[in-house]
Design goal:
Length: 134
């Protein structure tokens, strides 16, 4: 009987610790919406890299590629640095019609997760910029 009385405060402390941990892990900050995207484009044939900046809800044409930016987000400063961009890339090498070659989310730290595959160009996200970053 005395053993149960001694265990009860220990169990209560364990429950309190678990609740504190659960609350701290669930309190995650929302991503910050960006206004401009910085992208690097590599021309594999010419071996040239070009840095470009595109505003959100805008498009950019680089040689035969049309790049459309729909949204970009970045993690808040207290979280692990990570940038995300929602984009669409069309290839206009055929003058009669454009071909959709990429559409979806691109992640700055993991370009391998959502790869952009093209025989001539390589494209990757550098950062999503907010108005504070300018």
């Amino acid at each position: 009987m005395r053993l149960k009385v001694n265990m009860s405060p220990g169990v209560l402390k364990l429950i309190k610790i678990l609740l504190i941990l659960l609350i701290s892990f669930s309190a995650k900050a929302n991503p910050i919406e960006g206004t401009k995207v910085e992208i690097k484009i590599l021309n594999k044939i010419a071996a040239k890299v070009k840095n470009i900046e595109i505003n959100v809800n805008d498009s950019f044409t680089h040689e035969t590629l049309n790049i459309y930016i729909y949204a970009c987000y970045k993690n808040p400063p207290e979280d692990i640095p990570e940038d995300f961009v929602l984009l669409k890339v069309d290839d206009n090498s055929d003058l009669k019609k454009s071909e959709l070659i990429y559409q979806g989310w691109m992640i700055s730290s993991s370009p391998v997760v959502t790869p952009f595959e093209h025989p001539i160009y390589d494209l990757w996200l550098v950062s999503c910029k907010t108005e504070i970053d300018f």
